[in-house]
Amino acid sequence: MVWQQLDQLEAASAALVKEDGWNPDQPSGVQRHARHYALAGGLAAACLAFIILYQDIRTFLLADYRTGVGHQQVITLPDGGVAHLNTDTAIAVDYSEHERRIRLLRGEALFEVVSNAQQPFRVLSQQGMTQAVGTAFVVRAEDQQTRVTVTEGRVSVFAGTDAQAGQPVAVLKDQQTVYRPGKPPHNPRTTDGVSATSWSKGIIVIEGQSFADAMAELDRYRPGRIVVLADRSRTKSVSGRFTLQSVDDAIAALAKIQGLRVVYITDYLVLIL
Of 199 and 143, which is predicted with more confidence? Predict the structure, then answer.
């Protein structure tokens, strides 16, 4: 996966810091090891650019609708239903006489489904499928897993892309399930449907997440990569509500709470030290 490869680069950058014995409380260290950061940052940026270019070409060929990083779009589907596309999201739409099929190629989308029992609405993502008749739900493709959250009605989540394969898991309003490729969905758990769809109203909600997970969530909404080089074991969980237009301010505010420093190597590579 893309971010797994970049995580290796992140680990290599952290190793450079540890090897040099760099101390973030000593400003002189920034100058003393600037070349190491520039090298690590340049390598990460170059690899990121190549991987993104490949994925963009593939997605461009397959997608009917897509959004860029930090952008959102509302799509009216052929039957009058609505798809809200979150940041860096792509979908392919395939409607037939017998079914309404959406492929989530990447990212996250909120679907408001028009009821039609004769033409089931199905969303495919990472070798799994979510089926609904008339409801509203979010499907989010993450690294090696898909997360399904229901905000209205109910859906059935299948381990494969065929409605006849295996026993589905029923997910009700304000419930959520997760599945991995080739694995059955987890049992549903209660969740806050309002928070799960806050992004569709321009708000990023972070609730009791680890600092690293919070940075990963903010990372979705700005081009490039946020790399946490600080000792994660010494950071505390964070919460907050931020607008899509204030991602950099959110990064700075959450880092300040932890006593950490934010360094912009380029506009597309941010280090947390």
Answer: 199
Model pTM score: 0.80
CA dihedral 53, 55, 56, 59 (to 10 degrees): 160
Higher pLDDT: 4 or 121? It is 121
Q: Which domains does the chain show, CATH number per domain?
A: 2-59+202-272 (no CATH), 73-196 (2.60.120.1440)
Q: How far is CA 208 from CA 40, 141, 181, 246, in A?
A: 31, 21, 28, 19
Q: Estimate to the nearest angstrom the gap between the alpha carbon of 259 and the chain centroid.
A: 26
Own/partner pairs, 117-124, CB within 8 angstroms, 24+ separation? 119/79, 120/163, 121/81, 122/163, 124/161
- Both tokens of 24, joined, read 């973030």
Q: Is 125 helix (H, G, I), strand (E, B) or coil?
A: strand
Least confident span in 44-48, 91-95, 200-204: 44-48
Residues in the chain, overall count: 273
